[in-house]
Design brief:
- It contains 16 helices and ten strands.
- It is an alpha/beta fold and 464 residues long.
- Strand 4, helix 7 and strand 5 form a beta-alpha-beta unit.
- The strands form three sheets. The protein has a six-stranded mixed beta sheet. It has a two-stranded antiparallel sheet with strand order 7-8.
């Protein structure tokens, strides 16, 4: 069964469970707690329609529907439990807290019945569905399209080990890619798709779910180069693990029959935090634009009076997944400052206007980028977007820089707070370390901390 069809089936069954559990609870509350006759009034039907939406919101923020083919039984149980707890309390405070009751025991009974009915039905349905999915995966009927990078003896060993598992883990190999142009030992087993130099093209032509890299985890430079090229956030990347990885606890297993492979997780931010982050981006940017409207007018006058030319400066930058967009800034340089050749600014740059120096110190020139956030091109916090000209230079020295394009660029960043504006490629590489560290530790708490430090820089005027 196709991924989208399976997701639709999951959603339909979750809706059926949510509506049924609310109907059962409503009947129990009316008949046994409020001692009334049960009637299917408009309130009952409104609950059947509205309540499942609340449950869906919780499930969606949990990441339940991200890839239901990986909904193994233990994960289904955990998601169902925490989702039921959160949803029960939310529905209680929204719909039930203002009910007229004889005592607080009625509240406790309502909570327990609502949780018990919903959790029981949800767990049963998801257990049977996930069990069916796991069986199909073990039978090789609903697996994950997998590319094996490497054609050496290591690659052959991984391939054979996966095939010989007592229960299949779902890997359906579409082919392999060799790394050195010589090793093609798998050519008689699975299709040879080309050399690693053509990775981007090969991945684009095949709808892949997983990539297994047959390199030791100690081969850091080669691994980093390959991972930075293929990591799109939609493909699971796995590499060989060594004894150090096992001792350090880097290898996480969800299948006791699985091969000792280490999954590369480049985004540690949970799904619910990513969704909340985007919601806060839109909300806070809208508020900022409304509040800062007088500041925009003052800054626009400063730019116009300070030098001839337009108020705003739009420049092409590289954003999420390598897509280009036009970043919006208040103009801080004289018109024609670059003369067609990309250049980085320096602290005493003669191209910067007098008003531009003030705005750069306080980061005021970045304020128009709230509009970029609303358009979905940027986030409030994230690695600063760069021009393709400089990215081409940086990736030759440090391929990991490409990982920064896997998330939305930000108005402010950890690198911007700690390092400030970069004056050359070497400084950009130094700032990159902070942004990579942010990428590996992304969280809403860290975002708030970076925004707080940015506000301090604005008021102190201590920006570099």
């Amino acid at each position: 069964m196709k991924k989208n069809l399976l997701t639709f089936l999951f959603i339909c069954l979750d809706y059926l469970v949510s509506a049924t559990s609310w109907g059962v609870f409503y009947y129990f509350r009316k008949v046994y707690i409020e001692k009334e006759d049960f009637q299917t009034n408009p309130t009952f039907f409104a609950g059947i329609l509205i309540v499942p939406i609340i449950w869906f919101t919780i499930y969606f923020m949990q990441g339940t529907y991200h890839d239901v083919r990986r909904m193994y039984r233990s994960r289904a149980l955990v998601l169902s439990f925490f989702g039921s707890v959160l949803g029960t309390f939310l529905l209680f405070f929204v719909f039930l807290l203002d009910d007229e009751i004889q005592g607080y025991q009625s509240y406790y009974r309502s909570l327990l019945i609502l949780f018990g009915v919903h959790f029981f039905l949800l767990t049963m349905v998801r257990f049977f569905l996930s069990n069916w999915i796991v069986r199909k995966i073990h039978d090789g009927k609903n697996g994950f399209r997998t590319l094996l990078i490497g054609g050496s003896e290591k690659a052959v060993s991984i391939y054979n080990e996966i095939l010989q598992l007592p229960k299949g883990n779902g890997n359906q190999f579409v082919g392999f890619v060799n790394l050195n142009g010589i090793d093609k030992l798998l050519e008689n087993e699975i299709p040879y798709l080309g050399h690693a130099d053509e990775l981007e093209k090969i991945i684009a032509e095949n709808e892949l779910d997983e990539v297994i890299i047959a390199l030791e985890s100690t081969e850091h430079e080669r691994l980093q180069s390959i991972i930075s090229r293929i990591d799109s956030g939609n493909i699971r990347i796995k590499i060989l693990s060594d004894m150090y990885d096992l001792i350090a606890g880097s290898v996480k297993m969800t299948n006791i029959y699985g091969v000792l492979l280490m999954e590369v997780n480049t985004d540690t931010m949970p799904v619910w935090q990513r969704l909340t982050k985007r919601f806060l981006d839109v909300l806070l940017s809208t508020i900022a634009i409304l509040i800062l409207l007088p500041v925009y007018i003052v800054l626009a006058i400063m730019v116009k009076v300070g030098s001839k030319g337009p108020i705003f400066y739009r420049q092409e930058r590289i954003g999420l997944n390598g897509k280009s967009f036009k970043i919006i800034k208040f103009r801080t340089m004289f018109v024609g400052a670059e003369n067609g050749t990309p250049q980085l600014s320096s602290e005493n740059d003669l191209r910067i206007t007098p008003s531009g120096k003030i705005m750069r110190k306080m980061r005021l020139d970045e304020f128009p980028q709230f509009f970029n956030v609303l358009l979905g091109e940027m986030s409030l916090v994230g690695p600063r977007p760069e021009r393709q000209f400089f990215i081409d230079q940086i990736k030759k020295v440090e391929p990991q820089f490409l990982q920064l394009t896997k998330v939305r660029p930000g108005i402010t960043s950890w690198g911007q707070v700690k390092f400030g504006y970069a004056e050359n490629v070497d400084q950009m590489l130094q700032r990159m370390k902070f942004d990579l560290l942010y990428l590996k530790n992304r969280s809403l708490a860290l975002d708030f901390k970076i925004m707080l430090y940015t506000v301090m820089i604005i008021f102190k005027g201590s920006g570099k």
